[in-house]
Amino acid sequence: MSKRCLAVLEPAYILHHYPYRDSSLLLEVFSRHHGRLGLVARGARSARSRWRGQLQGFTPLLLSWSLRGELGTLTGFDTRDRAVAFAGRHLLSAYYLNELILRLLARHDPHPGIFDAYEQALRELAGREEPALRIFEKCLLRELGYGLLLDRTADSGLPVEPDVMYEYHLERGPVRCDNPAAAGLYLRGSSLLSLHEEALADPQANRDAKRLLRAALSIYLGSRPLKTREVSRRLATFTAVGREAQERHDMS
Amino acid sequence: MSGSRLIGQLIEALRSLPGVGPKSAQRMAYHLLERNREGGRHLAAVLQQAMEHVGHCRDCRTLSEEALCALCASDRRDRGQLCVVETPADVLALEQSTGYQGLYFVLMGHLSPLDGIGPEELGLDSLEARLQAGQIREVILATNPTVEGEATAHYIGEMARAHGIRATRIAHGVPMGGELEYIDGNTLSHAFAGRRDV
Fold first, then answer.
1. What is the ipTM of this complex?
2. Taking CB atoms and an 8 Å limit, are A54 and B150 in contact across chains?
3. How far is A14 from chain B (nearest CA, A)?
4. Considering only CB atoms, which chain A residues are within 8 Å of B184?
5. Is the pLDDT of residue B196 over 90?
6. Helical H segments across chain B, by residue range
7. Per-residue pLDDT band at B181 (split at 50, 70, 90)
């Protein structure tokens, strides 16, 4: 018999929710000090519930619960801060963060570092969307113990130089490569350093970082593709067409 | 338990209704058997009919026993406006309380990538085909003001714009007769951001 665990007003986010029984919700929660956990919000879907509609994702919450065994029960909550006002455009990126956490973190495994990085990323999505995603991915790998070597080469341990090409060997690190072949993960030293410093100011560094992190994450994500990535890709095609049409309209 | 196999089965079957537990199911079963056999027979017949014949409307996909639902078939509706909602119950709610005269498209859900429900699973291809057909001037996005509803509205909004169609989102804000003090912060900040000239 596992012992009962009570948490009072813990900083947390709701990653996902499912309807549970007739009027309850099953929340997939990411808390700062207790990691991911499942909580039942009793009666949260009933018409008279004071919780109704308030337990939304991407809102900084303080949650109280009691937990015995695998599933806990939500006993109270408060909002911690003003919710980040998301335009729809950034919602898919925010979902992408949730999907990564759901896929890569086990329940009841606290990762305050990832929690802080998640919160940071949510705040920055509205401004610097792509860098915010890359920095979160980098931090996620580091906190899980798969951190990327970015400022030194894997073979000689020499500092990475901005104007040199490197081949990145996953799970090892960059190796200097003066004549890149067709296959392989080749990156400029400046891009590696930009990711190392979490600057990611220019488009080239962003593209390189995206390639590198996608390859690195794919090892741990397994073969099942990320759904948010697929939806984002389709959405991007509409956005591009819409923008073109708008520009044509503006010019005429 | 009574020991009757059939009554046991009836009670078990009634539990498939929402909000009906073992006790209510038992009360319903005995009520029908003891006091209202006629009502029970009628229920059985109608239930059988509905389960056999109610399908989805070809155009808007709401529940309907006709291939084309009454709203879509009506010649008094404005065919230039298309209101996108999540469920058939939403159509009913809008019909009862707004003077909307256009047509509907029922998603039967919302985008939920974390559950593996993307645009394909939601059948947005058929919505896109309708946008492409060129009759529609405005798409009104009336998905729920939840995170999932917003994501869905954004996706469809972009799709509409890509076809050069105006997309509008229903407003959200303070409920009628509400008091600001008791309204949750999210709603209030939305209402404030979406203020209008008077």
1. 0.85
2. no
3. 11
4. 53-54, 79
5. no
6. 5-14, 22-35, 37-53, 70-73, 88-97, 124-133, 147-162, 185-193
7. confident
Give residue for tokens 């003891």.
B34
Among chain A residues, the shortest Cα distance to B192 is held by: A85
Give me the DSSP letters along B121-135.
TTTHHHHHHHHHHS-
Q: Which residues contact B84 (CB under 8 A, 6 or more apart)?
A: B104, B105, B107, B127, B139, B140, B141, B142, B143, B153, B156
Cα gap A168→B25, rounded to integer Å: 64
Separation of alpha carbons A214 and A112, rounded Å: 23
Out of A15, A85, A234, name the one closest to residue B189 (CB).
A85
Interface of A with B (CB under 8 A): 15-16, 18, 22-23, 53-54, 56-59, 79, 82-83, 85-89, 91-92, 95, 98-99, 102, 227-228, 230-231, 234-235, 237-239, 241-242, 245-246
Q: Which two tokens stand for residue B45?
A: 């017949």
Question: How far is B47 from chain A, CA to nearest CA, in Å?
Answer: 22
CA B28 to chain centre: 28
**How far apart, in whole angstroms, are the C-alpha atoms of residue B148 and residue B150?**
5
Instruction: Give the nearest partner residue to A88 out of B116, B150, B189, using CB atoms.
Output: B150
Structure tokens given for B2 = 């009574």
pLDDT digits (tens, 9 = 90+) for A156-212: 899 999 999 999 999 899 999 888 777 789 999 999 999 999 999 999 999 999 999
Domains of chain A: 4-79 (2.40.50.140)
Instruction: Please give the C-alpha separations between residue A231 and each of A88, A226, B118, B126, in angstroms, as whole numbers.
Output: 13, 9, 6, 17
- The residues facing A67 across adjacent strands are A5, A72
